[in-house]
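Aim 2 progress update. The chain analyzed this quarter is reproduced below.
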Amino acid sequence: MQIVAVAIFPIALMIIFGNILKRKYFTNDHFWDGLDKLVYFVLLPALFFRSISHSSFTSESLTIAVIFVISFLSVTVLNILIQKFYPTDAPSFTSVFQGSVRFNNYIGFSLGLILFGNQSIGFIVSIGAVGIPVVNALCTYVFHRYLPTEDLSFWQIIKKVLSNPFVVSCLCGAVFSYFSIVLPTIIDNSIKMLADASLPLGLLGVGAGLKFRINKKYYSDIAIASVLKLLIMPLVAFALTKLIPIENHYALLSLMLMALLPNAASSYVTSKHISGNSNLMSQIIFIEILISFFTIPLILGLLHN
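Predicted structure tokens:
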């Protein structure tokens, strides 16, 4: 529990700090709107590009990455079914959807290094390299499918997806990784500086949009997103490992750690930029982070034993 707290507590603290800054010192919404745009168009794309472009794959790391993708695709199907039979409004659905599939790669990398050492890093990076572009493309499609600002055909929605800065940066990173393209050190270090700034600034933005008093009408939405992300997705991933056996113990632990991760700040930034329910999104992120204090050590402890 203490080790998990070391990785997760600073993230929760940054969200709370962002909330304090918004209420006490930087009360102008224009400041936070500008910050959100910076994170959305520059900082997070830099993080995605650099993470993926520096990735390499083995057959085993690719296997667990595919299992991870199948897991959140299964949750995607459940999301659509729930929305069909127990519908919520479209902006709230996009927040529930993101809340159930996006994952905080930063926590995964930090915890993997602390808990399992270098044996897990290659597996975690591989899962992120495959999972990040797929989940970004999926979330962007859902936004344009359920929140249409204009009457778009299927291919027009795909065009919107492919022009999304998150998706573009992921695809560019995949090309650099596949062809083993190495950027000059000066450029790579500059991108790294931008990437390193994405997490703290993104979390401050989440905190600025967070309202600690949860509206009762959001209770079910938060519960659905949290259960799908922190319970159903890990269960699906674990079930798939019974069908596709994983011999390397650290590969299994890395997969389960990534499946157990709470949501990421990119969900809030995306929700705010594409007119989703950013208020609900910030609450889902915060609640999932708090819950993961308990679920991650509990389930990983059982698996490790």
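The two ends are 15 Å apart (CA to CA). The chain has a mean pLDDT of 84. These observations will guide the mutagenesis experiments scheduled for the next reporting period.
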